[in-house]
Amino acid sequence: MKIYDVIVIGGGASGLVAAIEAGKHFENVALLEKESRTGKKILATGNGKCNLTNKNASVKDYSGSLCYGAKRLFSEYSPKYIVEYFENMGLVTYADEFGRVYPKCNQSSAVLDTLRNNLRLNDIDEFTDRKVTEIVIGENFRIVTDKGEYFSDRIIIACGGKSSPNLGSDGSMFQVIERLGHSFTEISPALCPINVKSDIIKSLKGVRSKGKVSVLSKGKVIRSDLGEIQFTENSISGICAFNLSGLDYDTVRVSLLPDMSKNDIITMLKKRREMLKDLTVDNFLLSIFNNKLSAVLLKKSKINSFNRRCADISNKEIEDLAHNINNLDFKATGKNDFGRSQVTKGGIPANEINIDTMESLYIPNLYFCGEVLDIDGICGGYNLQFAFASGIKAGQTQ
What is the dihedral of CA 138, 141, 146, 148, to 10 degrees? Predict the structure, then answer.
């Protein structure tokens, strides 16, 4: 019976670096992955380019009980550290104007290949198609899978959350972890489209526009974010919507000219009324907004007859239009499902983990890293930053 020094459960971002680091300190290390290959989710990140960290990442960009501990973790494994970590493994990177770091070739496969190459260089035993069904604590850990048992002195659990179950993160390890005595905070999808209900949303399907998305609860704005907004037939999408999707709200507000006050918009529209006075109303917002979006805004402002001349638009109609341009409200119909989310909100809470080692406070020699923990970040490389930082820390602990 072979007893490993360390077994890492989960071959995602955090699990791969945890195994690599453990392989530098221990002779016998194994990686167990329930999918047919490791790193499936890495291939899908950053629209297939793998946004592996963000140079601007700080704890203010995260939520969850581990945020305070993450501050200490990031002081040791900063975005700069992560970039240099990968470059020392041979990956050439670049950062865009938003601080998002990608491989120079813009292929996520380059990141995964770099990690897999280093698994081999560190003599890590890699086992795929191994679903863990039980962990038994004894003189050492006995890990029961659907294809046999494995034994180890230490375990690092990097099983991910529930987001993107088609890529392997389906929460199937949660019950195993709970049977060990650990708990989970409330689990929900995050970084996903916001489902809405409106009589106008279907007519906006496929429209993209720069602007601001705000989420409100009982009429009060909770948080806002700027960026490209994408409309589908039943949701509002785009990075700015993703970043707000994990909050609690009942209304979603789209502001299409967020840098302008209502009075500024009114002044602009009155000038256009004069400039375009002999043209029909359907030309009134031409070149300012997408045609579909222009039609929706005009109809919502009761400017329904597009055969009218622009000169006939009343001051009241212009005031209503100015209001709707920055207050296009939609009723939220609940969070999206895990299948469309990029990350899981919630996880094992901070009071059950030693953030300085990533070790369980309940069970010696049991470690956790990555998305299974109660912390989630905004879009743009922030979640991989935590995954890599926590995975390296867990793997380096002796």
Answer: -90
